[in-house]
Amino acid sequence: MSTSDQYKREIMKDLAGGNKEILEPNGNDALGEKYQSFDDFADRSSRDERHGLIKRSFNPQNVPAAQMDPELKQAINKIKPNERDDVARDFFKHLKERGLSDKDLEKRLGLSTHNPKRMNGDDVGKLASFAYTAHPDIFQEVLADQPAILKFLSNPLVGAALGAIAAKWLHK
Fold it and tell me: CA 141, CA 2: separation in Å to the nearest integer?
């Protein structure tokens, strides 16, 4: 059994047994009651709600890059091409503000192009993985602005990252 499969089984076992992370008391604990499912959360939540939850949940300390990278690539390949363009454009915009040019990132990450409209899912996945490990704050900003990716992350990853709220949704 692969490490990823074992990790997913452990998460599902913990969630099924009620072993879950308690969220900080900042008002977001009620999100599990406000939204029917994770897809509903991704569709209807405000940017601030998404950002607060993503900031606490999706970072290399909580979910290792080795676990997140394949999930990101899979999720990005499932979103619509125009949404994928928007995601790439957002990553490039934020990374440019840090002094990383589109062309430098193309060379550094081995992208097929630096034009967001021509990028395939693999290119955007590399860009997202880079941001996740090297600039987690940028990753969190883009995820909060582009919730389409959230809908396609696997349930075990969502469960690991979002703890108590995901547990409520996964049990429905």
Answer: 31
Q: How many beta carbons lie within 10 A of that of residue 88, not counting itself?
A: 27
Domain spans of the chain, in order of start: 36-171
Give 66-121 pLDDT, tens digit per residue.
888 888 888 888 889 999 999 999 999 999 999 999 999 999 999 999 999 999 99
Could you report the per-residue pLDDT of 42-62, keeping only the tens digit for each?
677 776 776 676 666 666 676
> Which contacts (CB < 8 Å, 24+ apart) does range 120-125 have?
121/73, 121/76, 121/77, 121/84, 122/73, 122/77, 123/88, 124/76, 124/84, 124/87, 124/88, 124/91, 125/69, 125/72, 125/73, 125/76, 125/77
CB contact set of 99 (below 8 Å; sequence gap of 6+): none
Question: What residues contact residue 58 under an 8 Å CB cut-off, 6+ apart?
Answer: 68, 132, 136, 139, 140, 143, 161
Whether residue 164 contacts residue 20, with contact meaning beta carbons closer than 8 Å, is answered with yes
